[in-house]
Amino acid sequence: MAKRPLGVSILAMLYLLGGGLLLVMGLSGITGTPIFQDMPQYLLEGLQRAYIIIIILGFSYLGTAYGLWNLQEWALWVVGLSTVFSFLLAIYNVNIWTVIIQGIILLYLYSERKVFT
Half-sphere exposure of residue 87, counting CA atoms within 13 Å on the CB side? Predict the structure, then answer.
């Protein structure tokens, strides 16, 4: 097995963190006890209606983190496709910082594609 590059480890940790936060948010929606008490009511209602989707996304983030950590090729594709989607959405919304960050992630993943099996 190839040595995991530092950037891939960082991405895996960010996906792990994101997945954990999504799970906590989804579970708080199920129990009806929002963890973010200071959020506007319309956002809280939206979270409560979408808790199943949030939980599914949380588990998919955790799975992607596992795949990145173990250098699985499917995880490279998942992250690559979600990054392309975010990149295009940022262009549409004219969010220059997100375009730059997503572009850097895409270039980095492309440069490290050979370590994935």
Answer: 14
